[in-house]
Amino acid sequence: MSRIVTYSPSHTLVPTYECFNRCSYCNFRRDLGTDGWLSLDKAKEILTALQGSEITEILILSGEVHPLAANRELWFRHIYNLAELALNMGFYPHTNAGILTFAEMEKLKNVNLSMGIMLEQMTVTLLNTVHRHAPSKVPSLRLEQLQWAGELGITFTTGLLLGIGETECDRLVTLETIAALHQRWGHIQEVILQPYNPGKREQWQNNPFDLQKLPALVRQAREILPPDIVIQIPPNLVPDPLFLLDCLAAGARDLGGIGIIDEVNPDYLHLHPDKLKEFLAIYGWELKARLPVYK
Ligand SMILES: O=c1nc2n(C[C@H](O)[C@H](O)[C@H](O)CO)c3cc(O)ccc3cc-2c(=O)[nH]1
Ligand SMILES: C[C@H]1O[C@@H](n2cnc3c(N)ncnc32)[C@H](O)[C@@H]1O
Ligand code: SF4
């Protein structure tokens, strides 16, 4: 019998690429005032074209507006409206819009199946390097988001960004932090182990995370995280399929949202799920579609 690995057939809507943070590894962000917002009409057009396709999840992934900026409320309302539109058109929205207030999170919960934010890494040392100009990446703030999601009972995705200047020990601390949160609230459904990959637009232009290290990290994560948390690996960021197989052997069981374009890493294309399915089947893995919540 073959073992099962899942993915979510998804399409990403980007409310805005404009972001007040400047994470130096980011290929997604645009400067404030240079890009504008996705209109509801345009979103409706995109979603209409997706109706009847295999896509079930709409990932709403956004650049961020400063919490005290005059247009913060408009920005939030726009994200809410996009999620509500997707839901009303028969899709399952999953929003990751960075740091939200408790009240914003509580509202968004009504129009999302699940939500998420990457913890990235818990170490504060990154505030002097890649996160120097990214107030949203203060570890205690992100931790608080995960705590609020727990209090609100929101099914949640989080994860580690790997290879941004953290040590091996930092990675374990971040995993232990997630494990502790889940022990308290039981709301973390998946943890993404996301290898940093350089792209064309970013400032940083560093070396990619050493993929040789990924299977061992998956194994450590499997030991640290409670058994009901699924480990997710984005297959387009693991270009050598043999490493992907090693990650599955080490305990990863999900390949995340797969769509036409990975908005975060547009330079790294996804294989078509059918192709991925064929490849994995050769090695005894059955690739199965899932929804943004597993159950
Ligand atoms: O295609 C992507 N999906 C990303 N997803 C979506 C993920 O792959 C799954 O589709 C959802 O978590 C639903 O299970 C994220 C979700 C989060 O909550 C937080 C971060 C990410 C990051 C990515 C990403 O970089 N690319
Ligand atoms: C949405 C998530 O995408 C991740 N992210 C941002 N930039 C990159 C990159 N160059 N490579 C891989 N992941 C990245 C961060 O972890 C963010 O939280
Ligand atoms: S990673 Fe997110 S918070 Fe950082 S600059 Fe990019 S869009 Fe903004």
Identify the notable features of this structure and list them briefly.
single chain, 295 residues, TIM Barrel, 33% helix, globular, binds the ligand O=c1nc2n(C[C@H](O)[C@H](O)[C@H](O)CO)c3cc(O)ccc3cc-2c(=O)[nH]1, binds 5'-deoxyadenosine, binds iron/sulfur cluster
What does this molecule look like?
By secondary structure, this protein is α/β, with parallel strands linked by helices. The chain has a single domain, classed as TIM Barrel. The protein is 33% helix and 18% strand. It is built from eight helices and nine strands. Strands 1, 2, 3, 4, 5, 6, 7, 8 and 9 form a nine-stranded parallel β-sheet that branches. Strand 6, helix 6 and strand 7 form a beta-alpha-beta unit. Helix 1 packs parallel to helix 2. The longest helix is centred in the middle third of the chain and has 18 residues. The radius of gyration is 18 Å and the shape is globular. The two termini are 22 Å apart. 43% of the residues are buried. The model has no long low-confidence stretch (mean pLDDT 97). Bound molecules: ligand FO1, 5'-deoxyadenosine and iron/sulfur cluster. It is an enzyme of class 4 (lyase). It holds the Pfam family Radical_SAM. Belongs to the radical SAM superfamily. CofG family.
